[in-house]
Amino acid sequence: xxxxxxxxxxxxxxxxxxxxxxxxxxxxxxxxxxxxxxxxxxxxxxxxxxxxxxxxxxxxxxxxxxxxxxxxxxxxxxxxxxxxxxxxxxxxxxxxxxxxxxxxxxxxxxxxxxxxxxxxxxxxxxxxxxxxxxxxxxxxxxxxxxxxxxxxxxxxxxxxxxxxxxxxxxxxxxxxxxxxxxxxxxxxxxxxxxxxxxxxxxxxxxxxxxxxxxxxxxxxxxxxxxxxxxxxxxxxxxxxxxxxxxxxxxxxxxxxx
Length: 257
What we know:
Layout: E1 2-4, E2 29-31, H1 38-41, E3 53-57, H2 70-74, H3 80-104, E4 112-113, H4 117-121, E5 152-156, E6 167-177, E7 181-191, E8 194-195, E9 199-206, E10 211-218, E11 225-233, E12 244-253
Parallel strand pairs: 1-2, 2-3, 3-5
Antiparallel strand pairs: 4-5, 6-10, 6-12, 7-8, 7-9, 7-11
């Protein structure tokens, strides 16, 4: 039984008999997309974990792409009716959009077990545990016999628009060079299943021999990594033409460690 942002008003905090609960089926998975308090945030979905697996994409309260201005949202690519509904209840309706996207991406929407979204964002719950991460949506039941806890909170990030799934990587760059410079470092990943765009790893003062780490949510699952592209820039003309390189770049894949 899959709960798509089960309702908060009149249901949150009520007895299990009158709301969705994990006792309702052998396996209950839930996607929370609009769980901010109803007052004052107009959240339509409930926040407590109520299933065997509870997924909180983007933290479960505010979905990326839902803060567009009203005109661009109502005159939507999918038509005015779809756009108007999105304007009224964009976060709430993301749950079924993620679900329908999950059917097409059996390897997508990996949920990382974590105590909170802030810890997940900071990288504390990376990579997936040894038994793996469940997939939010249509394929969540592959994890049916693997959950150990009474309930499991799972976190992940999604894109702003279709296609929604993102794949999480940890990228660690150790710099090489003669002296410190100011600027930013970008990295792109290349693999046998596709390439990512460039992602910023760090910006500010760049010191040779220092190591910089970032967690990126890429819009492509690159598969086996074949190449990594390293770029740095300082956005202004420097007559001394400073040089900066990467001594090492380490990429860790969240899914398979």
